[in-house]
């Protein structure tokens, strides 16, 4: 069901990249692991490497999941904004095409959540 405003609805968005002091938001979802019911919103530096995103942001975020120790995120299947994506682990996020409010989805074949339930 769509919603229509009853008046001219104009505003200045507050979540523009200019308002993040040199940082950017990146959303990451671990597909098939609904213990995390929504994508993570990670505040990261645009020039950090993709490997650093995994090691310094994603791994700590998913550490509570029992399968996280088995997950090889660098060898996983990735999507960037709905398209298949093969990251360069040593290139920066920006060089990988990952910018402010990009959506990453990672699928780890063989890891289907606790007891293969998607949880």
Can you describe this structure?
The protein has 119 residues and is α+β, with helices and mostly antiparallel strands. It has one domain: Ubiquitin-like (UB roll), CATH 3.10.20. 11% of the residues lie in helices and 21% in strands. It has 1 helix and 5 strands. Strands 2-1-5-3-4 form a 5-stranded mixed sheet, covered by helices on one side. β3 and β4 form a beta hairpin. The protein is globular, with a radius of gyration of 16 Å. The two termini are 29 Å apart. The model has no long low-confidence stretch (mean pLDDT 94). This is Phenol hydroxylase. GO terms for molecular function: phenol 2-monooxygenase activity.
Low-confidence stretches: none
The whole-number mean of residue pLDDT values reads 94
SS field, number of helical segments? 1
**Helix-strand category:** alpha+beta
Number of strands: 5
Radius of gyration: 16 Å
Indicate the proportion of strand residues.
Answer: 15-25%
The CATH homologous superfamily name equals: Phenol hydroxylase
Q: What percent of residues adopt helix (DSSP H or I)?
A: 10-25%
Please tell me the total number of domains: 1
CATH architecture: Roll
Main sheet: strands, sense, barrel: 5 strands, mixed
Intertermini distance: 29 Å
User: What is the CATH class name?
Assistant: Alpha Beta
> Overall 3D geometry?
globular
CATH topology: Ubiquitin-like (UB roll)
Q: What's the helix-strand series?
A: EEHEEE
Strand order of the largest sheet: 2-1-5-3-4
């Amino acid at each position: 069901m769509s919603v229509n405003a009853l008046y001219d609805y104009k505003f200045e968005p507050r979540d523009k990249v200019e308002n993040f002091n040199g940082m950017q938001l990146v959303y990451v979802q671990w597909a098939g692991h609904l213990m995390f019911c929504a994508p993570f919103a990670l505040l990261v530096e645009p020039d950090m490497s993709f490997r650093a995103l995994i090691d310094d942001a994603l791994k700590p975020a998913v550490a509570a999941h029992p399968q996280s120790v088995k997950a090889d995120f660098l060898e996983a299947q990735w999507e960037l904004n709905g398209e298949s994506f093969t990251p360069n682990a040593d290139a920066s996020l920006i060089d990988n095409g990952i910018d402010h409010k990009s959506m990453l989805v990672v699928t780890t074949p063989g890891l289907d959540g606790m007891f293969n339930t998607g949880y």
